[in-house]
Amino acid sequence: MAGISRTEAYSVFLLVCLFLSFSEARDHLVGGKSDAWRIPSSESDTLNHWAQKSRFLIGDSLVWEYDATKDSVLQVTKRDYVTCNTSTPIETYTGGSTKVKLEHSGPYYFISGAEGHCKKGQKLIVVVMSEKHRRFIRVSPAPSPAEIEGPAIAPAPTSAAGRLGGGFFMLALGVLLVVM
Ligand SMILES: *[C@@H]1O[C@H](CO)[C@@H](O)[C@H](O)[C@H]1NC(C)=O
């Protein structure tokens, strides 16, 4: 067969797997569309509904697009989120195009800065997953009792990147060996 060989094809596959294993931080457009930062039209249209369908990881960013003359984004405490208290936000974002980087795991609370909008449901909780929940395919077998009790065993890579890269690398290698 002319063109690329099987080996080359699977080498490319391997590289793609490696690339995916170090996937980039993502930007999440809040609500999934540019006019979504507004009072929800129904219970099923809330921003929290949208947020529950997404995975937020440390390093990702939230992006809001809204009419700067009518609205703003306030990052608030849980208490101010619940009570829709706009008087002392943690951060105030204005300007119509707001980007917030998610620096830590756990919940982030946002409400609209427009008068009365939060009470009508224009609010958002985003829960950022911790490092250990990052996308990760486990391929290494569970250690045997001998390994656990044995003396000096070389430690497995412990950094998240090492685990991720290692996982995908082993997966790709496994596929390569099975197919060739
Ligand atoms: C809003 O929060 C501020 C600061 O915590 C507080 O002084 C104020 O009473 C709160 N307003 C309402 C309506 O709860």
TrEMBL record:
Residues 26-130 form the Phytocyanin domain. Keywords: Cell membrane, Disulfide bond, Glycoprotein, GPI-anchor, Lipoprotein, Membrane, Signal, Transmembrane, Transmembrane helix. The chain crosses the membrane at residues 160-179. The keyword Cell membrane applies. GO terms for molecular function: electron transfer activity. Its main location: membrane. It is a lipid-anchor; GPI-anchor. Residues 1-25 form the signal peptide. One of its GO terms (cellular component) is side of membrane. Belongs to the early nodulin-like (ENODL) family. This is Early nodulin-like protein 1.
